Amino acid sequence: MNIFHESYALWAEVIVPIALPKPLTYAVPERYVTNLKPGCRVVVSVGKQKIYTAIVYRILKNPPDGFDVKSILERIDEYPVVTERQIEFWKWIAEYYMCTIGEVMSVALPSALRLSGETHFFSAHPVPEVVLSDRENAIMLMFQSKPYLTIDDVAKLLGIKTVQPVLNGLIQKKCIIAEQEMKKGFIPKTESYISLTSDSDNEDVLKQVFDDLVKAPAQLETLMRFIHLSGRYTGKPRNVKKTELLACEKVSYQTIRELIKKNVFEEKLIEVGRFHMSGKDESAPYALTDEQLQAYSNIQQAFLQKKTVLLYGVTSSGKTEVYVSLIRDCIKEGKQVLYLLPEIALTSQLIQRLEKFFPDQIGVYHSRFNDHERVEIWNTVLCNESRFKIILGARSALFLPYQNLGLIIVDEEHDASYKQQDPAPRYNARDASIVLSKMFDARVLLGSATPSIESFFNSQTGKYVRVELNKRFGSIELPQITVVDLKKEHQHKRMQSFFSTTLISEIQQALERREQVILFQNRRGYSLVVQCSDCGWIPSCKNCDISLIYHKSSSQLRCHYCGYAEPMPDACISCGSVVVDQKGFGTEKIEDDLQQIFPTARIARLDLDTTRKKNAYQQLLQHFSDGTVDILVGTQMVTKGLDFDRVSLVGILHADNLLHFPDFRAHERAFQLMEQVSGRAGRRDKQGRVLIQTYHPTHQVISQVLRHDYLSLYAQELNERQQFHYPPFYKLIEIVLKARDYNEVKDAAKQFAFNLQQQSLMIYGPEVPPVGRIRNQFLFRLLIKMETGISYQLVKEMISNAIIATRKNEAARRVSFHIDVDPC
Ligand code: ADP
Ligand code: ZN
Ligand code: ZN
What we know:
The chain has 824 residues and is of the alpha/beta class. It is built from 26 helices and 35 strands.
C-alpha cells in the first residue's frame, strides 16, 4: 500500500533475513535517493507489522509491475556494510545449496547487524508548520506524554492495524524521525587514551612545563612516565592508554587530572578492537627442512598456474610451517589470508603459534564470540586498511567482508565440521571457499594427513595439484599400533569395565613414567542408555523417537536431539522393578570407572558436555598441557590437531561403532579418526603407542590404520563409491520432509517422490530415517543421485518444481522440505 507513489524516483530490491523466495522491492524515500547503495542496511516492514533490517540488493529505476510497494522506513548506513562480492557470494550459496538468500544473510551477518527490533519514532525539533490530518495530529499529540512511539503504540492509539502509511506520511512531512534500535545494536568498545595537547606538543613548551613542575614532583613523574611510554624520544611513538599510565608508580588519577587542567594532557576516547595488541616483535620463521622447502616451492608453482593445492602431509610433517611461509608471501603482496579450521576450539593453540610470526596481525572470528566481538572484527575487515592480515576462524569466517583476499588455507580439509547441518544454508566451507577464492582471484590450499576421498580424487584427476610431505619433522616415527581383540578378552575374562588388561597395564606404565594418556570414545557411541533388567523397558524421549541418555552428574535422563530432560526414575516406569541398569559407553561412565581403577590418577573429560562454556575447552587443554591432568578421556574433540609433548599412549576404546555406522562415509571417517587420534601419540623424541580395542581385529580398515595405509583405503573406497553410485562419481542431494502429522508427511513424501520420478531422476526412498521423529515432527527422507556431468541447475529446478507440485495439496503445505546438497 503506497500513498505517495508519484513522488518516488527509485526503488530498491532488498534482502530480508528470512526464507523468502526473492528479494523484496521497496520505494526509496526522497531523502535517500542520492546516496543509497547496494550493501547498505535499511529498515523495512514486511507483512503487516514485522520490522526487519534488510540489505539493499539492487537499485531499480522502475517500480515493479502489477503491485504497489511500501517505502523503505529508514536507512541505517551511509556506506555499505556488505560488499558487492559478499552479495554475489551469498547468491551463489543460495543457488548451489538450494536455500534462500535471506537464510544466507541470517547466517552470514552477525546478529547485532541485523536486529529486527522495533522502530522508535521521535518527534522532530521543531515540528514544521504543515497541515496535518486528524490522525497525524493525534499521533503528534502523543509525544507530549511519551519520548518516542512504536508502531504498536500508534496502532493502539488509532485503532487500526496498518499504521505504516500514516507514519510514512509524517516522515515525509518531516514531523517525525524513525530511529532504529538497530543502530544501537552495536556499541563499539572505547578506551581512554592520554596524549599531549596540541599546545604542549612542542619541545620548547615541554621544557617550560618540566621547569614549572619542579614543585609538583608527582605530576612531573607522571609526565616523565608518559613521555617514556609514548616512545617520544626512542623513535617508536605510540598512543598511551590511561590504564597503562595509571599502572606506573606514583601516577594517579589526581596527577593526570591536574595535568589535564594545566592543558598539558588531554584525554580521548578511542574506539578499540577487543583484541589485545601483544606488542611483540616478529620472530623469524623456522628454516624449512629440505622436504618442506620442496613442498613450499611446489605449492608456489601450482599457485602460479592458479591451481587449488591439496597438501597431503602425514601428521607432524610441518604443514603449519609451510603455511607460515605461504602466509608471509601473501602478506608481502599486500593481501589478506583466511585460515580456516574445522573446530573453533583449535584456534587457541594455533594463535599462539602464529602470533610469534605475525604479531598483531591476526583476527579471530567464530560463532562463540559474542556479537560485539564479531561486529568489531567485521568492521575492521571491512575497512580498506584492515590491520588484520590474517583471519583465523571456523566456517563462518568465510562470510567476512574481505577486500583483497589472496590465500585461503583450509586446514584438516577432510573434517565434517566444515559442513553446516542446520539451519540452511547447509554449506560446506571447504567447497565454498574455492568459489570465494575465484571472486578474488585468490589461491586455495587444502591441508590434511587424511584427505577426504573427494579431494584426493580431485588431486588424481588434475583438478587440484597434490603436494606431499611424507616425513615427520625430526624423523619421529609414526606410533606403533596394537590391536586388542575384545572377543578374546571377554572370553578370558580379561576385561575390567571398558578396559582390557593390556590397556590397563599400558596406562599403568605410562603413569609410572609420568607420561600422559588420551582415551578416545566415539561420540556416536557414547550414549549411556538405561534399561530395566527385569522387563527390558528403555526410557525414551516424548518428543523424539530415541532413547534418553543418562547423565550422572545431573542425575537426569536427557534427549540429545531436542534437549528434553527428566529426572532419573527410582524404579522402572513399566514394571516397578528397582533394578535399572546402565548400558553403553558414556564418556562420563568411562571417566568414573577409570578413576576406580586408577584412584590417584588425575582424569579429565573432554566432550560436548564439559566444553559448553566459552573457555572451558581452552582451560581443559591448558591443564592437560601444563601436566595437571594425567589422562584425558574424550570424544571426537581429542582427535583434532592437538599438539602435546608428553602423550605417549592413545587408547581407542571401541573401534566397532566407528566401522559399522550406516553411512557411505563410515570407513573413510573411521580411518580418519583413528589415524588422527593416533597422531597425538608420541610427538617429539619418542615413538608413541596406540591401542585399538575392537571385536573385529581383522577388519580391513583396522589393518589399513595399522599400516598407516591411506592409499589402500582410498583405492578401496573409490571402488565402492563407483560401484554404489556415491561421490565423487555421483552427486547427492538429500531431502528431508517434516510434519507434525505422520500421515501427512508420509503422503507428501510419496507424492513428492512420484513427482520427481516423472522427471526421471535417480531416487532412493522415501524412507523413515533411523530417528524417525524429532521435536514432535515426523521425518521422511529421500536421496537423489546425479551422475557428474549432468546439469545440476536442471536437477535443482526439477526438485523445486516437484516441491511446488506436491504443495498443491492442502495437507502438504504443513510439511516442510529441508534440502541438503552434498550431504556430509
Ligand atoms: P602438522 O601440521 O603437519 O601436523 P606441525 O606443523 O604441527 O605438523 O609440526 C609438528 C612439530 O614440528 C611442530 O611442533 C613444529 O613446530 C615442528 N616443526 C615442523 N617443521 C619445523 C621446522 N622446519 N623447524 C622447526 N620446527 C619444526
Ligand atoms: Zn521394568
Ligand atoms: Zn527429544
